[in-house]
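Supplementary notes (optional reading)

For those who missed the lab, this is the record we used. Protein: protein disulfide-isomerase. Length: 462 residues.
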Amino acid sequence: MASSSSTTTRFLLVLLISSLILFNVICSTTKDEDLDEDLSFLLDDGGDESLTHSDDHHNLHHQQQYDEDEDEEESYDDFEGSEGEQDEEYSMPEVDEKDVVVLKQGNFSDYIEKNRYVFVEFYAPWCGHCQALAPEFAAAATELKGQAVLAKVDASVENELGQQYEVHGFPTLYFFVDGVHKPYSGQRTKEAIVTWVKKKTGPGVSNVTTTEEADHILNTEEKLVVGFLDSLVGPQSDELAAASRIDDDVNFYQTDNPDVAKLFHIDPKAKRPALVLLKKEAEKLSQFDGQFTKSEIVEFVFGNKLPLVTVFTRESAPLVFDSPIKKQLLLFATSNDSEKLLPVFRDAAKLFKGKLVFIFVEMDNEDVGKPVSEYFGVSDGPKILAYTGNDDARKFVHDGEVTLDTVKAFGADFLEDKLKPFFKSDPIPETNDGDVKVVVGNNFDDIVLDESKDVLLEVFCS
């Protein structure tokens, strides 16, 4: 009998899981407003004006997290074959694009073949994201002149090129090397594009031999890694170069000059190799204390390149999603509350560097904060939420006072898996004594997973 009961229980559990999967599919097509808000528009890679709807992604991770804004979606048919009709209604803002090459069907293949490095933007004039990118793209083209070519294709006119390169949203960015293309999914700023292209076209690590060079780098770079080595060639330099190829958004430098090292906040008498990461944030300097190997350098850079607390924006979203540190602690608060809470949250972040990514979500920010809050089911703040990332997408909520001690305890319990997961749920019914029980998120475990009885569950959309 025990074996039969166990078999029945397993069967019912499989049936339950299948029902829940079917429930998600049905609800996604019948009542979109009841789903977690999909926010892929926050990703630079997914933040394009889309040509097709995509409702498959509901996890907060990398490029599979969030869908586009519903008011930003356009069908490919809306512009295919329009022969530029959209251009009469929409026009790109005036930008000095003297160094941006215009490519069309007639010159595209020949130009790509004759130029080794070509960074191409497929755009549409009516696309708001493309208009925002235009000045950044033009500035990057000027800075990279002679090293790589930046070009653009109006895919609302050049339909064949758009289809050939599977352009499904605007802007779509590709980097061509000797005719072979790969997508660019980094931040859409001049600095990010320039850094990324330089990494792909030049040496991974640049030598700094004079104090004048060092001054220029410090004045122009937002964040950088500097190695103080015994020699600019050899095993130490090789490890640094190998690490630099893993990270696309931080420039790496090396020097063997003590005077240069001092400008980069490295003790000129320090034992070599020494390594620091500098950034123009509240935490300006991070010092490396591991073994000087590629893997440990990479771990150090990823653990320190983000601010202590990252303000969640469209620009910062790719950095959060691309981080190998998947577990996150998110502070949800209004802009007024943030003045009091952010210093506390930053102090707590110092205790969990390399283990947790600390994120601030400004709840009264219409563009980003509100959609993110809705995605996580946070309706009031201040509140701290722990999120496991792409592993299993579990959420845990801290409703109490936000102090250094409470955040520290909550973060430690999160890492030790001591917290109870949070689910969006209707209220538990005040009376639930009928023959048919009402199951909601907050009583699911107590009723459905009660091992003392078998349960037949009906899952439906109202």
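If you only remember one thing from this example: Residues 1-41, 52-88 have pLDDT under 50 and may be disordered.
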